[in-house]
Each structure stands twice: as structure tokens, then as C-alpha cells.
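Recap from last week: sequence in, structure out.
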Amino acid sequence: MTQNFKTIIVDDEESSISNLKFLLSEYHPQITILGTANHFESAKKLLEHTEIDLAFLDVQFGTKNIFEFLESISPIYFSIIFISAYNHALQAFQFDAVDYLLKPIDINLLHKAIYKAQQKKMKNVESYTASKFLMENLKDKSTEKIAIASTSGYEIISTTEIYYFTANGSYTNVFLIEGRKIISSKNLKFFEQMTAASEFIRIHNSSLINKNFVKKIYKSDGGFVVMKNDKKLTISASKKNDVFKTFGLT
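Predicted C-alpha cells:
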């Protein structure tokens, strides 16, 4: 693909900017980086004076997120590839107008994301509606979905359909409200990070639960919860105070 492509990179980590600049210069010389920004103010000024085809945007900036910034510059006339250290919304992989890459960036996924953006430009497809739709999906935590990697591929599951996760060595058991269990190739720490913005809490080294599906909490026998499927899960001593405070207990 020889089509010229103008882009900017917005990320609050200089190391991430440097890494992405290297990957683009090494593997995608047709892409011209017109500028980089590590905070919203400089990014806004950059866009005011620069016409681009594509923006690489980190999702999280401390306590803020990129969606606040995007809403302030609407309408959006360029394609977007979101980047994040955490798996906030892998449903974005299914949306062909933009893409969502995890840090550290996989070069093969980067190739695919850029190819999709270039195809979109060649077809002269308007990006505003598509990007706004994706932003709303990512912002709406009530309908957040995650991609659960198993031996057969990925299953896209809403977090509202998950009772709890339990450790299974380097794997994780994912228990769904429909009564089904998925064995994922990712460890429990991975899912704790991925659901950090949702209604999940770590109650033990081996258990991560959906707070909305807790039926009872007991202080006896060291502390444990009973989920709505009647599963009893132990609360570890180190997690007890945090768990009780979460439910307003003392």
C-alpha cells in the first residue's frame, strides 16, 4: 500500500510515543507523523493547525480519558486507532471503522489496524458517525463487553453476564449467569485489570466477583460470600476490610 497517510500520536507516556514512532517508521514509511502530544491541550492545538487522516489515541490520561477530549473537538473528521495498557473494550475489534490496540503493541495487529484505516480512506467513508458510536460503547460501562480468550478463540461477553472469576493455575474459570463456565487462557490478574472500571472486586487471590450478584456475606469462618448461584467463596484475611467496606459493613 503506497497511499500517503498523515497521522498524530496522543499519549501521556513518552516511551509509548517513541515505541509507536519507531514501529511506524520501520514498517509503515507511507505514514507521516505530523506531531505528537502528551496532554490534551497540546493535542487540541496540534489539531487546530494540522489536517490529518488518522490519530493514535491513548484511552487513559491519569484520571481523565480520551473521550472528554474527543467530545471537545467534535465533529471528528479523521480515523481513530485507540491504544490502551488495559483491555477496556475489546468489542472495538469487531468495528471496522476504527481499531483498539493493547500495549505493548503487537506489530501484526498494528498492520491490520492501519490497513483498515487506509481502506476506509480509499472508500471515502465518513468517520464521524462510526467513531462517535464506538466512543459511546466504550463509555457505557453498563453494557461493557470483554473478549475472553479460550482455546477455541475469543468469546465476546457482557460483564453483566458474569457471576465471578476463579483462578485455575495460569488459567481462569469464568462463571456465567446462564450456568456455563469458560476456561480462559488468561490469568486472574488480567481479568482484574480488564474489569477495573466495572462492578467487580477481588475477594481472594483466587476469586474475583461481580458485586451485583452477591446474595449474602458472612463474617464467620473467616469471612465468605454466597453468590446468587449459591456458590460459597472465601474472603481472604488481607481482603476482608476492603470487601466489608465495599458493602457498607464494619
